[in-house]
Write a structure and sequence with these properties.
about 260 residues, mainly alpha, 11 helices
Length: about 260
C-alpha cells in the first residue's frame, strides 16, 4: 500500500536498493563497453560511444566500471543476501557469458535475457527475501519481453551488427521475416505470462485487462512486421515494446494504489 511505502525505513530501503541496482548495472554496462570497444568502433550506432570516440580512455572506463560494480554490490549487501546474489549473477552472466557469446551464436540473445530479467526478480526479493512464484513471473515477463525487443533491433541494424561481427538469427534470404516471426511468437507469450500475476493475486483485474490490451498491441506490431518486414515496421515494433513495458509497470502501481 502507499502508506507502507511512505514509512521512513521503507523509503530508505527503496532508495538504497535502487541506487545499488543502478550502480552495479552501470558497472556491468561500462565493462561491456570496455570489452567491445573495438567492435563498437565498426558500427554506426555505437561508434560515438565514449570509448571508441576517444572521449574516455579504455583504462579509465574499466576502472570506473569496476568501482561502480563494487559500490553497487556493497549497497545491495545491506538489503539481503538473496538480492545481492541475484545482482552478482546478473553482472557475471552479462559480462562473462553474454558478451563473448554474441560473436559466436545467435542464441546469445537467450542468454542475454537472463541478466536483463534478473533485476526485476531482485526488486521483488529486496522486499520479500524470497524467490517465489511472483518473482519467477516477473522474471518471465522481463525475459520474454526482451526477445521481440532485441529482434526489432536486429532487423533495424542487421548490417551494423554484422560489421561488428555479431551473430544474428540467420534469415538474410527471407528479408528478416524469420526474426519477425520469432518476435510475434514471443509477444503472444507475454500475454498469459503477465496475466499470471493476477492469477496469483498479486495484481487485480485492472492490470489483467491492461496487460492483455498492451500485449495485443505489441503482438499486432510484430505481426505487421512479418507482413511488411522493413526498418519502419521494426521501429514501430521497437516503440511498442517500450510502450508495453512502461504500461504494465504503471498498471502494477495503479492497481495497488
Amino acid at each position: 500500500s502507499l502508506g507502507y511505502f511512505l514509512e521512513v525505513q521503507n523509503i530508505i530501503h527503496f532508495v538504497v536498493m535502487m541506487f545499488g541496482t543502478v550502480f552495479i548495472s552501470s558497472g556491468a554496462c561500462v565493462v561491456n563497453h570496455y570489452l567491445e570497444r573495438a567492435d563498437d568502433a565498426l558500427m554506426n550506432r555505437t561508434k560515438n560511444r565514449p570509448i571508441p570516440s576517444g572521449l574516455v580512455s579504455p583504462n579509465a572506463a574499466l576502472l570506473f566500471g569496476i568501482l561502480c560494480s563494487v559500490a553497487g554490490a556493497g549497497m545491495l549487501a545491506t538489503i539481503n543476501i538473496t538480492t545481492l546474489m541475484l545482482a552478482l549473477l546478473t553482472h557475471i552472466s552479462y559480462v562473462a557469458v553474454y558478451t563473448p557469446m554474441k560473436k559466436k551464436t545467435w542464441t546469445a540473445m537467450l542468454v542475454g535475457g537472463l541478466p536483463g530479467a534478473l533485476p526485476a526478480m531482485g526488486g521483488w526479493t529486496a522486499v520479500t527475501n524470497a524467490i517465489d512464484m511472483p518473482a519467477l513471473v516477473l522474471f518471465g515477463i522481463m525475459f520474454i519481453w526482451q526477445m521481440p525487443h532485441f529482434l526489432a533491433l536486429a532487423i533495424m541494424y542487421r548490417g551494423d551488427y554484422e560489421r561488428g561481427g555479431f551473430v544474428l538469427l540467420n534469415d538474410t534470404h527471407s528479408r528478416n521475416v524469420r526474426s519477425a516471426q520469432h518476435a510475434f511468437a514471443y509477444s503472444l507469450l507475454l500475454i498469459p505470462c503477465a496475466a499470471a500475476l493476477t492469477m496469483l493475486d498479486v495484481t487485480g483485474w485492472l492490470f489483467a485487462a491492461g496487460c492483455v490490451c498492451l500485449g495485443g498491441y505489441f503482438a499486432y506490431t510484430a505481426l505487421n512486421c512479418i507482413k511488411d518486414c522493413t526498418t519502419t515496421s521494426a521501429r514501430k515494433m521497437l516503440i511498442s515494446s517500450y510502450i508495453y513495458l512502461m504500461g504494465i509497470f504503471l498498471l502494477m502501481f495503479l492497481d495497488k494504489v
